[in-house]
């Protein structure tokens, strides 16, 4: 029906795909602004006076007042917020109240360590989910499949810190003593220099992710295997492995990719709990420490980073879902 | 050959076929008669939950059911090939045409590529590299089916099995695909088994025919013999249900429905629906030779012994032509985005008369009916109902206008709410805008159901518990409870078996006699001949021809109408001298 040249329709296809994304991007920037405001207010709402916390119980009223003026805490809230936001836009994240270290420094270290942990976890999680899901689908309704479904139910019902604690008991403290219970990585060193410190935190993140994603893979593979084009491939005399890898998987993976990006986003958020559990020096641990110390600039910076990571991964999920839609519609309009 | 369900219920029972090289066997029957299961079993394949219990399939020297897995795969590549009904679903959307075509071949890339180009030329498609790199979704339905056929024949199999390969295609595409199949059978000395519910298609391609019902062969023989002298009452009932394009005639639906797996009567499988059932039918008859054909019936006499076959019916008493049209449309233009779908379309629907809108897919006929009911937003033009202007979108119409125009969709499965009983669906249509008491609505619902020939007892059932034909009747009943003056029917019979289609057409005719105006959208000219009084032919969004049904169908003036008529498949006339009653019917 369409008489456009292939080039034109390709351009239209890209536009149809990119336009809504630009909208999403703008929306995302606004969301992050709103998040920054919320973080700011929440941090201010924490009980306890910052000046008191820094100077200790023995400080005089004058000393406290002087410190508050120095930190800008006597200014109106909106002014404090704008100053902070303006600083971030200039690349100035402020200085830690607890130890005077620039926030940017703390952040760089934390982000590197957390990104390593999440990266390693995802690099194992995604292929493993695919493998487990495909195997479960192949043995549909058999023992392996039921075992997997039962295990995934349990794994998804149990919170991360319980999984982590059980793993520590199994591999670090009670049963075996093969891995460290606490992931000690000196500041400035790469986590890859301490691989055994990475193992337990990574596994704690991987288990629920695999159990969730593999279920999706399993259903997608079962759906695809029931389609007429797979039946056609069987009737064309294709070998089972070719049917699985060439005919079924490309179709089964497409609907899972957006879900996988969402799981990645959840992983980044979930890393906070796991880092705390293993005392792994990432943004999660930094955040928990900062909350304990009422270290407002560090709290704000950390939460903003986590929110941004979450947002970016969500944006990727949307982009992938949108591209699928766009290509489907394009195909239809040409049919 | 026997195929059974995992619980042992027989899906197809003791079926035998034999074909010589180059011949085409047609397998015909209603949906649920086991013909697709048979087609798949011939490739040694059974759907999930079924298994081939025993039997043998010998193609050339290979017995398909005795092979191990690897041999079976090789046989499916080189000996028997399969073409599925819906090429849109049967072609993997992620693979290029080149991969789809060449993956069955052995040899290096250049050889495969050369063979792919050769086969593309043979099926009448472009053979350049950019075409080979396309994905199935970038092709039209007709092109997809050509690719599916090319994919089946590229490895030069001995036997090709086609499962309803033309059912989803419109008439001219269907004619081209059928030509291709015939040509391949001759040029490659290919033997083919052609499965279809459409007798007209089978009659046009097949040398032999097997009529299946309830998983059994009820009649089998040479096409010519079965066509001129159908012996089994079921075969004859199928013939009687096919509408003819030559004349308007009484269509005789087969009452009842195809039995589910393991549900058939213990005697003759057709006995519960057969009009000529006698006492001996309580024992299952064997397949016996009668004349030149095999028939599973205790009385395999030629059909004329059962009485006259066809009754021509006239048009309802012609009302004066000056009757005011109920619904009138003038200069309708409709758009999808920037693309114009309809150009300056005008039509009139008169009481007691049926106006057919005919065209191929993409001609804009469905858009037109959606414009009339007010579901298409992007439209300009004028509509009048009883001489008063009618707003173009349904949201702006008053209650009375909405009730007087009712719409019936092609797919009754999707248009009835699956979570509502039939009665509740009808009552909901009744409630709109009128405070009715439950008691009165009960009687109205019962009356509407009776009007469409459905027992009011079925009001408590859910749509899924009904057969396709019953569901479409319920959809019609739902339109009737609003006491409309115009029914807009959008391809209402397209997804139905011929036997069920016959009953729906008979029902719609009787509604015309009640004085309803009707707009009937379809691509099937034989159906048009049997229901419409006047016709509008739509091509690429423009009316190319309109007028009285007899004038348009017997002497079409526009080339497009002529090509539609040429591509119409009909049951070919049987030998007139041998079988007078058949000749009158055809």
TrEMBL record, chain A:
Keywords: Cell membrane, Membrane, Transmembrane, Transmembrane helix, Transport. The chain crosses the membrane at residues 25-43, 115-137, 158-185, 197-217, 252-278, 298-317. It is a multi-pass membrane protein. One of its GO terms (biological process) is transmembrane transport. InterPro entries: BPD_transp_1_N, MetI-like, MetI-like_sf. The keyword Metal-binding does not apply. PROSITE patterns: ABC_TM1. Its main location: membrane. Residues 111-317 form the ABC transmembrane type-1 domain. The keyword Transport applies. GO terms for cellular component: plasma membrane. It is found in: Cell membrane. Belongs to the binding-protein-dependent transport system permease family. This is Peptide ABC transporter permease.
